[in-house]
Design brief:
By secondary structure, the chain is mainly alpha-helical. It contains ten helices and two strands; from the N terminus they run ββαααααααααα. A two-stranded antiparallel sheet has the order 1-2.
């Protein structure tokens, strides 16, 4: 995957144009993550919530990936390492944040609606799984075509799959707002396995990358947005039929995009299906939540 941006950014307004050097464009771009990190650090310090400092570490990885992207693109005309670091950083975000909210929301719902086996509490297994996954991502960023990298990636995928299995997701199928979190997180170990297989020369690299970016990133984003939109506006935490359809469409888009990489002969129709399902899903989310976003917050 190579990106070849122009050496200079150009903004055109009518017949006039303004050229900004790559360094200026990089500073403007990086300012966003710096602002986010500053805001997060302020909240952590104000609340003395020191365990959440690990979120700053993940944001630092994203910042480094973005900076690498700009430097690499300017020097080499491509940004392969920067792209991998950015993807790896976002996978870390999902493993860290998702690793907290998925079992937590699952436990809350099961304890209230369906007593029985509950998600395992965060413990040594989770720490080991995160260390292994982080090591695998570092190896992938540095040496994506190495057999050793492929082996570590596939091992990390197995451990993340075991981690997900400990959260009792199969017991949440009756509650789409919870179940979708497990489905989205499932693309994390799938991505590790597919990227690992690519490093070993068995599959194209884009299959695993799209499992992460479409399935995990897109699915988790939609799942968390829909839940937060309801919860923070005083609405009942119930996914409407329309919202459930958006979950299904993102899943269809993700599977189709991965299959397009695995089956190049069917690439065109699968890509069209993925694009249509993806766009419809997020358009549907906006339409389904329009009244939520524009109406006053409901009283408790």
């Amino acid at each position: 995957m190579s990106l070849r941006p122009p050496a200079r950014s150009k903004v055109v307004r009518g017949s006039a144009s303004i050229n900004a050097g790559w360094a200026a464009a990089a500073v403007v771009d990086l300012a966003f993550l710096l602002a986010v990190g500053t805001a997060v650090a302020r909240e952590i310090v104000a609340g003395r919530n020191w365990p959440n400092l690990k979120v700053l570490t993940v944001l630092a990885v994203l910042f480094a990936g973005n900076a690498t992207f700009h430097i690499e693109a300017h020097v080499n005309g491509s940004a392969d390492i920067g792209v991998r670091v950015g993807i790896a950083g976002t996978v870390l975000v999902i493993m860290v944040i998702g690793g907290r909210i998925v079992p937590s929301f699952t436990r809350n719902w099961l304890a209230r609606e369906n007593p029985g086996r509950l998600p395992a509490s965060f413990g040594r297994f989770d720490v080991v799984s995160m260390v292994l996954a982080g090591s695998a991502l570092i190896a992938w960023c540095v040496a994506p075509g190495s057999a050793a990298t492929g082996t570590v990636l596939m091992g990390a995928g197995l451990v993340q799959a075991a981690r997900l299995a400990r959260w009792a997701g199969e017991r949440t199928w009756r509650e789409p707002l919870v179940f979708v979190l497990h489905v989205a997180f499932a693309f994390v170990p799938l991505g590790f396995a597919l990227v690992g297989a690519a490093a070993l020369g068995w599959l194209p690299a884009s299959a695993g990358i799209h499992a992460w970016t479409s399935g995990a990133f897109g699915g988790m984003t939609l799942a968390v947005m829909s839940r937060a939109s309801l919860g923070h506006t005083g609405r009942a935490l119930v996914a409407s039929k329309t919202v459930q359809m958006t979950y299904a469409l993102v899943l269809v888009a993700s599977v189709a995009r991965v299959c397009a990489a695995l089956q190049p002969q069917l690439g065109a129709p699968l890509l069209h299906l993925a694009a249509l399902a993806w766009a419809t899903a997020f358009l549907g989310f906006g339409l389904a939540h329009w009244s939520v976003f524009t109406a006053p917050r409901l009283s408790a």
